[in-house]
Amino acid sequence: MKPVPPPKIGANIQKIRKEQGLTLDGLAERSGVSKAMLSQIESDKVNPTVLTIWKIARGLEIELDAILKGGWEPVRKFSVTRSSDAAVLDTSDGGPHIRVFSPISMAEDLEIYQVNFDPGTALVSGPHAPRAEEFLTVLDGAVRVEAGERSADLQTGDFINYHCDIDHVIENPHDAPASIQMIVRFHRKPF
Asked: What DSSP assignment string belongs to 11-41?
């Protein structure tokens, strides 16, 4: 019986990367695997670990199996976070109550929160990554948003979008509770 040749992992990664229009730099940034290592893997100079292949698959947004077989389809997501499973971040100093709905895998990409403010509380934030934006909808009550030198008072149903790569504050200076939905979008560098 003739031995089965090992899959051409390096060639498969290179083929999929090029089909997606990604450079080595782009895949390195997405996967966390260095450009030099990717180059060595693609030219079959090194035998990558399973962890490295998994990181590359995640960077290519494909199933791990696709690297072994050479064909790929984008991963089709269908992820549910139950209300009881949402992470809760309550500050100890009487600040707002924060529920995180987005999975940890989306951190510093797209983050989704519900923030409940008791009267007189505030969420004070330093600058996020360059070009990051917050999208805020007031679900109930009223809040004040300050981003740099600009500010706005918002009521139930109001929406605001602002760059959050500067100091910014969301506060409830009123006597009644308030609730907001906030989405934070981080802009990745172009590939």
From this structure: HHHHHHHHHTT--HHHHHHHHS--HHHHHHH
